Amino acid sequence: MDAQSLKDILKDNPKQIEQILESVGCHSFKEYSSEIRCALPNKHNSTSVSVKKDTLKSKIYLPNEKVIFGDIFTIVMNLNNNCKFPEALKKCHDVLGYEFEYVFKKENEDEHPLAMFRKIKRRRQGLNEIRKYPEEILDQYLPYPHIKFVNDKISPATQTKYGIHYSETHQRILIPHYHHQTGEIVGIFGRTVIENYDELGIPKYYGVIPYPKTKNLYGLYQNYEGIQQKNYVVVLESEKSVMQLDSMGYDFGVAVGCHDISPEQRSILIGLDVEIIVAFDKGISKEHIGKTCEQFYKKRSVSYIIDEDGLLNDKDSPTDHGKIIFDLLFNSRKVYERNQFL
How many Å apart are CA 129 and CA 64, to the nearest integer? Predict the structure, then answer.
């Protein structure tokens, strides 16, 4: 099952929460009306770890007085050899004896009278499932940062984190897309390095291994822990924006691939149980931003970034002009209120 489905089960089963915590060395459990508390591995303070039973939000109080915020999965990530989110999710499944398999299914899909025929059509188009590829598929390309991305304010360290490669054959910087939960490669997109690509009729971006981006969130695999610790997620349009944000030291960005959020992406974002901050490029209308925020109204805290002071050029991302400008925009974000753009 996926992360949200497992969370839904755990919210009704405090003993299973304890099983997961015990599997990473926690002990001396105390159950209260709203939370579970316990001690860290090899420590004696039985209040060092707390997990809210209704949300699974967590806190880890370290001996050096640092506090790590997150959820049940980030506890496992921190206490299980600093593993990645997919490993933590799989460990939770293994501990509880559940099968670890992610399948997205739209609500009430099978209730539609044409559901059978829609499924047949999807299979023919190859869009019903996301194919997974091994990491070794990148071995045929050069695993180096590219100066064009550095000039776009994407640091070499960030390029390494996001698996950026270069293809001499395609003359493109390659951007792998990782499944937001399993961490497997599901697609690869390439950005041309040819200067006059427009005049030559060469597309700036090209799907070397295309896939339906609407079924995934770029950057969530790398940034899940940061998003949970900060308790918010910044929803951007492009992969470049996520990497620019990371180069500023901010690991809480995801990209939807355009300025529309699909039903699948909406479900993933709601499942994060954090504040959702819509940060689309300049030029997107207030009405469209309002419709986007409305999808999360009364379900999650939702806010939006909008440039009202002329800090950005038309079509710029909030991340295009560096940390100072982004911080100004971020800190002046507005809480969405229903019908405020009508």
Answer: 46
Residue-wise pLDDT for 135-186, tens only, equals 999 999 999 999 999 999 999 999 999 999 999 998 999 999 999 999 999 9
AA letter at 25:
G
- Give the contacts of 119 (CB within 8 A, at least 6 positions apart): 128
Write the CA distances from 164 to 108, 144, 152, 194, 299, integer angstroms. 38, 7, 14, 17, 35
Instruction: Answer left, alpha or beta for residue 56, where phi above 0 means left and psi between -120 and 50 means alpha.
Output: left
Instruction: Output the CA–CA distances (angstroms, integers) from residue 183 to 99, 231, 303, in the order listed.
Output: 17, 21, 28
**Two tokens at 50?**
């707390």
Return d(Cα 242, Cα 277) in angstroms, integer: 13
Q: Is the model's pTM score more than 0.70? A: yes
Topology of domain 3-96 in CATH is DNA Primase; Chain A (3.90.580)
Q: Which CATH code is given to the segment(s) 135-213?
A: 3.90.980.10
Residues near 52 by beta carbon (within 8 Å), at least 6 away in sequence: 34, 35, 58
Q: CATH assignment of 215-335?
A: 3.40.1360.10
